[in-house]
Amino acid sequence: MQKEEETSMAAVEKFAAVDPGHTQAKGFDTQLKDIKKALPLRVMTPEDWLHWITRGYVVIRNAVPRENVERMVALLWRFQEMNPNDPATWSRPQLRDHKMKELNNSGMVEIYNHQYLWDNRQEQRLYDAFVDIWDREDLWVSIDRANLNTPNRDARSFNGFIHWDVDTSVRPLPIGVQGVLSLVDTDSETGGFQCVPSLFSGFDEWEKTQGPDRNPRAPNPEGLDIVNVPMKAGDMLIFNSLLAHGIRPNRSEDRVRMAQYISMAPANEGDNAERQDRIACWRDQEPPKRGAFPGDPREWEKHNAERARLTPLGEKLLGLKSWQD
Ligand SMILES: O=C(O)CCC(=O)C(=O)O
Description:
The protein is of the alpha+beta class and about 325 residues long.
């Protein structure tokens, strides 16, 4: 392994305890790969389903309309104060460091509540994909950020990482998903999502080969079969939180990787405090108050955008309206 990679992996180990801020299911006790479907699949094919339960991830093609993608791309350039036609503007330092050290220089964009992000969250096809995953309709959407990763060299040096979003030492194992909506075409050069499907399917056997001090948030990447998943703009990749994954660095000359993170989990309507926190994020255009989200010191959204308008589906996905109504 190269020295730079070692450093990056050590960063994962040291800061693994930071809450990654991804939505976990509460009061849900069936592992997602073991769900016996009661609802018919809405957007996934039976092959997609098989891939999902055996490999730990699935790609939903054209999850949102083309125009949604195009306006998100333009928004992220503007938000980051970078000119898409002038790579000389692409090396701006991140405005705040990440507590999850492995994310430094990975291109995280601290935007959470703009209308265009909400438009994707409340897109029917994308929601239907999560209904397929959870086999239920009453879901809440994560209020999460975006990614604009310019080539990782010089001031933007970044060597990638592999981690889990959950602590894999606890039993029963945590249940959750995360999703990445790709806003550009990606390949092995531009980097983007990478994962270790063999470790998802063979986790129990693999764990037996590990010592008692293994890092429950990040496997030792040496010898692992790391898969880079190429995507097209508008494709949505959903992955099980038990899938070891991360970001592959952008080694292209002059292309960028762009994405929006969107996940859904069963609505936790019994927890009024959580519901109010979610509503406040949307209403006040704030990031969620979690360790993994440093937020934007400029408060760009408050100064440049209106509160996002929600559709009836969006109101339920936020928690503003109940799924019981
Ligand atoms: O950007 C990606 O593809 C993956 C991001 C990641 O590692 C995460 O959401 O935990």
